[in-house]
Specification:
It is built from one helix and 22 strands. The protein is mainly β.
Length: 448
């Protein structure tokens, strides 16, 4: 096992400590950081864990003092090597109830700031059905909990949840010349009487080199008390194009959940410099289920070593306590030079809530540039934009964030970081609030 610890201190100046539109007050915040990173690579047991705790001391507004906890962990134990394993994933992160109201730098004491904790554990089976197909089966129990962040006032958090899920996939992969067949089955339920059973068979027929016709046929049964009642067949047709092993495109349309549906994806790598991933999908799930699924995707990208993998697990969008038809489109692009990189992303979401028959629609964009000026000196600059243009609870709002920082490695174990961050948030509803915050910070961190 490899263990690395760290300790650090950060001093932050803010010109709007309570994120107020009037009577802005400045303050100094001293933050003490403690960190732990561990990696285990045994014969049967493998895992990775990253934890960080930070405590904010406010010079004047000491009622806002508090802890911020953040962490991510995943691992597996091979019960039977190359056949059966016990897997786990867990995370602690922080976010706001809505995209409105985030501070320029992460800190305790911000109103409506929520700590979200989630843990999933269960067996996974991987084998082959003779020479014909690959078989993957898994079962999971997942817990998700919402708590007011330390030092924060939160009106109401979403409900904690326990989710049970099973999944089965059979895939012929590339065993058949010009043909590929897959069969997927899944079941999910939670402690609030949500039930979801799905069955989907797919066929890919190659009609020319790299080009395949997609055909899908399946069935969905989704229910939740008297709120959701879907019992319908699903079908889709489309195209998949793979010009080479570093590029894949697909588009398909059909019917699912008793209404027209679309799906699309693009995954491109041009040499070792340009990476692009884009997708559009539609899925019914409780809000808690989407967070668990986002964690699974985050861990998967990290394990695959994808350059597009995010460095931190964050909660995106507004938090709800309802089952919805979640339509989402996203694009991530990364261009890498020898000592520079440019990352651009955009996410669009449209959630239709079955209980209120209303929608939450939002868009998030971000851009970040990094330059390694010299081996011990790095420069970063970036900006984020969030807009909620329809919400049954939070109303319309928009927020801008801008940040820049300079990092200097004093030696291999000591890093100094200094920077500036700006936040500008506004609620577009009648009588809505707005605020601006500027923050300057400098930190020193030592790793052991």
């Amino acid at each position: 096992m490899i263990i690395q610890t760290s300790v650090g201190v950060q001093e932050t100046f803010t010109d709007n400590v309570r994120l107020s539109s009037t009577n802005r007050e400045s303050d100094l915040i001293t933050t003490v950081h403690l960190g732990l990173d561990a990696t285990l690579n045994g014969a049967r047991t493998k895992g990775a864990l990253s934890l960080e705790g930070a405590y904010d001391f406010y010079a004047d507004a000491d009622d806002l003092n508090g802890w911020t906890l953040r962490g991510i962990g995943s691992g597996s134990y091979a019960v039977i090597e190359n056949f059966l394993s016990l897997d786990f994933q867990g995370a602690i992160t922080n976010g706001n109830l809505s995209s409105f109201g985030s501070s320029a730098v992460e800190r305790a004491g911000v109103d409506d700031r929520v700590q979200v904790s989630t843990l999933s554990v269960g067996p996974k089976l991987t084998t082959q059905l003779g020479d014909y197909a690959d078989l993957d089966a898994a079962a999971r129990i997942s817990w998700i909990a919402y708590d007011p962040a330390d030092g924060s006032n939160v009106a109401q958090t979403p409900s904690d949840a326990t989710l049970l899920s099973t999944a089965l996939q059979i895939d012929t992969a590339e065993r058949l010349s010009g043909l590929q067949f897959t069969l997927m089955a899944g079941y999910e339920e939670d402690n609030d009487d949500y039930r979801n059973f799905g069955l989907l068979g797919s066929a890919y027929v190659e009609v020319s080199p790299g080009l395949s016709v997609i055909g899908r046929l399946g069935y969905d049964n989704v229910s939740e008390n008297s709120i959701v009642d879907i019992d319908a067949a699903t079908w889709a047709v489309g195209l998949r194009y793979r010009p080479h092993d570093r590029a894949s495109f697909s588009i398909e349309g059909g019917e699912r959940y008793e209404e027209p549906t679309w799906a699309a994806s693009a995954d491109v790598q041009v040499t070792n410099r340009f990476y692009l991933n884009a997708s559009y999908s539609e899925q019914v799930d409780p809000d808690q289920g989407f967070i668990v699924r986002d964690l699974t995707n985050f861990v998967g990208l990290g394990e695959d070593g994808s350059p597009l993998a995010p460095t931190e697990f964050d909660i995106d969008g507004n938090l709800y306590d309802s089952t919805s038809l979640h339509k989402t489109a996203q694009v991530e692009a990364l261009y890498v030079w020898e000592a520079q990189s440019l990352r651009v992303s955009a996410h669009w979401r449209d959630r239709y809530f079955y209980d209120t028959q209303t929608n939450d629609r939002s868009v998030t964009t971000s851009v970040a540039y990094f330059r390694q000026i010299r081996p011990d000196l790095g420069f970063e600059i970036g900006a984020d934009f969030d807009e909620t243009y329809d919400s049954p609870i939070y109303g319309e709002s928009r927020s801008y964030e801008f940040w820049t920082r300079l990092s200097y490695d004093l030696n291999p174990t000591v890093r100094i970081v200094g920077g500036y961050a700006h936040a500008d948030d506004k609620q577009r509803t009648f009588g809505g609030q707005s605020f601006r915050e500027n923050a300057l910070f400098v930190s020193l961190r030592k790793t052991f």
